[in-house]
Fold this sequence. Notes:
Chain A is built from five helices and no strands. Chain A is mostly helical. In chain A, helix 3 packs antiparallel against helix 5.
Amino acid sequence: MTGPESSIIRVVVGLLYPFILLLGFYVIINGHYTPGGGFQGGSILASLFIARYVVFPVEDIDSEILHLAQRFVLSLLLLGPVVLLFTGGVHAHPDYRAAYLTLMDILIGVQVGFGLGVAVLRFAFFKGVGESWRF
Amino acid sequence: MVEVGVLLLMAVFALLAIHSVLLRLAVIYLAIFSLLAAFLYLLHAAPELAIAEGVIGSGLVTLLYLSALKRYRVYTIGFVGGEESRKLTDRYISEVEDSATLARIKDFFQRREFEPQVVFVSRSLEDVLSDPHYDLVISETPHGMIIYGRQDSYAMVELELMFRMQGAGSGIEFVRYAREEAQ
Lengths: 135, 183
């Protein structure tokens, strides 16, 4: 399906990979102080999935497991405000407000990252219908 | 002042993305467009949106388009110069790039959703013909051009038909070869 890999792209993306990962987590964790947050950080993490596919197109991540994890995190995300916010827990203890926001940011980040990652992996490894014909 | 400049640049890159023939180039123009949009958000004091636009517009979407383009086949055309022009100077290459015949062949593939990529080779013809990386090989002779294609290639049939129907195919010959024999 794909030709030989370009070593320039492989080396550059390999070099940038940990820094993009670090930036993603930074944006998620500092979301309530600085610009950014769960959605933005999650998108940065999801772009890693695609960068990985562009460089190294091997199907070794099971998108079913990723999808399951994403749905689990989504249920936690819905459960969090119900348990912590609507019962008045966070309002009663203002010191824990930052911790609550960080927790929500992390959940949103994982949710968005996994969700976009699943979409991308499904798209990338979609086998298509019918035989591809040679021109 | 800066805003007007950025807006004008955005318009320029949007037009470039629409009018560029090569899809890979259009994707890069779109990425620059998104980056400028992110800068504009920053000027309007919306850093949150700037981060989202920068990450999604120029990162995620660009990579998604590039991975989609991996399926879009690149049609590699090898061009072997004549004996006297083996040295492949810049002048010779631009002369060939501007020639009407090559423009018609490129147009033929672009109409069929393929991305033609012309590679100028300084190796011998037999060497290029046995290389599986080239889908089509064009060799220049003093009388004209010879186009070599695989025996079972549909493109050869249609290319030959196009040149015959539109006329002006003077000095263009078509040679088919079987891959096994060439190796």
